[in-house]
């Protein structure tokens, strides 16, 4: 008998029939004697609808009230799934993030987890109940206010709960049947990976892959919570995400596995900060302010100016552009000058693989493929296991196909479909 944590995203619980399907899946495991904790997102489309309603009333809604509003989506789902389980003879109880002991900081709409106690989950499991937990939400440890964890937060909830209750298995059920070498809607011969390292999954998630939220993977790696990404619409095995040391060659073909995959993030915008004082204190002021506001930047380039002034260019998520301009504008006002503006949208193409550590020539292959495809790039960032470049959004798909082919990542025609014909649409993001 094992303790299993399962997470179902918004597409998996989109309507009554799909909620019944999830209930049937949970019942199967419960009947086998497993103790079950199930984390769910809001139904697909509900969060977007709530956001639209809020913005129809106010262009920039108060973040505390947004958290109070958005938490409603998951509260609906946990109640509905509990009812569905009751209807088929499975004892179940629902728990909000607060009741599950998910404590966060006080940063509304993008809170970070401070601790997870599990609340009364162990006691309810001992009673033979299935515990249904609302994903995406918690409660501020300081103020007692409802908080939300940001997009993809239900993944983080599942991983955190699995760590807190010492689960034997954590499964992330979604509309994806695993992690692919590229988006199969763009690259028709993309392959499903049977397993992938935490580091690779983290880089793919932060580089535009919609399969998992980056913070969730980071949390899983920190607390050593292996998990499986698999489809809620079939019974095929998915992709195991765990610790894979390339030096131990745990993969059968590790010597050939230079690149695990190619990711594309279409939601990036370049920001240019002009006439900034050319010193480390000024750069620190800009990036510390962005960090304090919970805003992440990527692909930073410094251009040397004249007269002791300099220009910075970096990329941010397009949704964060307005907040970024506001925060940087405040810093520039304190520094006594300078301007901040959008320099246009870009697509970020990233190649990721732990094998890059010991394989020379990766950058040459990447840029050669881009050159052959007639794709230029301007912003570049690298790490031991990733190279990311900013490309013209109009040429992004062609760039991905060229790079995927250059690293010989493809399988046979139609391999991306994996276990079912629905898989090419699999990388569409869940609600949370």
Proportion of residues in helical segments: 25-40%
Largest sheet: 8 strands, mixed
Instruction: Write the CATH homologous superfamily of the domain at 3-248.
Output: Acetylglutamate kinase-like
Q: Structural class, judged by helices and strands?
A: alpha/beta
Question: DSSP helix count?
Answer: 11
Task: Outline the low-pLDDT stretches.
Answer: 247-255, 413-431
Instruction: Output the CATH topology of the domain at 3-248.
Output: Carbamate kinase
Proportion in β-strands: 25-35%
Please give the number of β-strands.
Answer: 20
Mean pLDDT: 88
CATH architecture group name of the domain at 3-248: 3-Layer(aba) Sandwich
Q: What Rg, in angstroms, do the CA atoms define?
A: 22 Å
The largest sheet has its strands arranged as: 3-6-2-1-9-13-14-12
Shape by Cα distribution: globular
Just give the CATH class of the domain at 3-248. Answer: Alpha Beta
Q: What's the assembly state of these chains?
A: single chain
Ends distance: 30 Å
């Amino acid at each position: 008998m094992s303790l299993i944590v399962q997470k179902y995203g918004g597409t998996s619980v989109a309507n009554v029939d799909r909620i019944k399907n999830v209930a049937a899946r949970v019942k199967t495991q419960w009947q086998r004697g497993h103790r079950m904790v199930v984390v769910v997102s809001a139904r697909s489309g509900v969060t977007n609808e709530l956001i639209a309603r809020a913005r129809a009333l106010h262009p920039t809604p108060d973040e505390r009230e947004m958290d109070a509003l958005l938490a409603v989506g998951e509260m609906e789902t946990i109640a509905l799934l509990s009812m569905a389980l009751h209807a088929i003879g499975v004892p179940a109880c629902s728990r909000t993030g607060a009741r599950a002991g998910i404590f966060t900081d006080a940063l509304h709409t993008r809170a970070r987890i401070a601790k997870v106690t599990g609340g009364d989950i162990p006691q309810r499991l001992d009673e033979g109940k299935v515990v249904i937990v609302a994903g995406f939400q918690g409660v501020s440890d300081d103020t007692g206010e409802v908080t939300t964890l940001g997009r993809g937060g239900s993944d983080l909830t599942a991983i955190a709960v699995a760590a807190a209750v010492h689960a034997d298995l954590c499964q992330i059920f979604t509309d994806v049947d695993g992690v692919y070498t590229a988006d199969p809607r763009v690259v028709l011969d993309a392959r499903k990976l049977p397993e992938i390292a935490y580091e690779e999954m983290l880089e793919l998630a932060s580089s535009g892959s919609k399969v998992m939220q980056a913070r969730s993977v980071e949390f899983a790696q920190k607390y050593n919570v292996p998990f499986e990404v698999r489809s809620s619409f079939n019974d095929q095995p998915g992709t195991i995400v765990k610790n894979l040391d390339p030096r131990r060659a745990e993969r059968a073909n590790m010597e050939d596995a230079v690149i695990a995959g190619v990711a594309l993030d279409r939601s990036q915008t370049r920001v240019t900060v002009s006439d900034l004082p050319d010193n480390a204190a000024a750069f620190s002021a800009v990036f510390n302010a962005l960090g304090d506001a919970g805003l992440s930047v990527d692909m930073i380039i410094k251009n040397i100016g004249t007269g002791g002034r300099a220009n910075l260019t970096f990329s941010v998520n397009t949704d964060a552009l307005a907040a970024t301009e506001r925060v940087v504008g405040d810093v520039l006002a304190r520094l006594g000058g300078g301007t901040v503006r959008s320099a246009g949208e870009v697509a970020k193409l990233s190649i990721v693989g732990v094998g890059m550590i010991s394989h020379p020539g990766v950058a040459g292959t990447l840029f050669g493929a881009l050159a052959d495809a007639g794709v230029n790039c301007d912003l570049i960032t690298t790490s031991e296991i990733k190279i990311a470049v900013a490309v013209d959004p109009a040429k992004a798909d062609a760039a991905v196909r060229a790079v995927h082919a250059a690293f010989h990542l493809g399988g046979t025609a139609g391999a991306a479909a994996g276990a079912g014909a629905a898989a090419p649409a699999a990388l569409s993001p869940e609600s949370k």
